[in-house]
Amino acid sequence: MKIPVYRVIDEMIRYNGGAPNLIQHALKVYAFAKAIGEEEGLSEETQEILETAAVLHDIGIRESERKYGDADGVHQQVEGPPIAEEILQRLGAAPALIERVCYLIAHHHTYSGVEGMDYRILIEADFLVNVYETPSMQASASEILKKNFETASGARYFKAQFLSGSGC
Question: 20, 22, 26, 30: which sits with the fewest CB atoms below 10 Å from its CB?
């Protein structure tokens, strides 16, 4: 059963209630992932997986902070999938979608061995937002682009934001 993305967004917002920074981050990553995926011509199934994973990619942050006292990416990758799985099962998502979304969440801070356009685009969308939200990363924008961007649309969005020199 296809789950409307607004239902996944609603669940993410409820889960992250009181943490607008987490909600805003997830929605920005979702918007970039959706745009890149559509421009890159993903299949409907892969696009659904990508969009769902983008909304839920950082769902493990609160549990990581509770258990470990930090939001380290390694901890997010461990704590996020069980939370996402519970949310998606409650929404009635197909097992294959749940499995792939949980895989993407469990690897979204792992930049080697990237398999699949959904995985590639999720990483790019997250970098587009993380570099904006973490100004200290902007000094290494050229290196981030070279190491982490492979899609034409993701690279174009990144260059326009961080390497255009226009300041607009």
Answer: 20
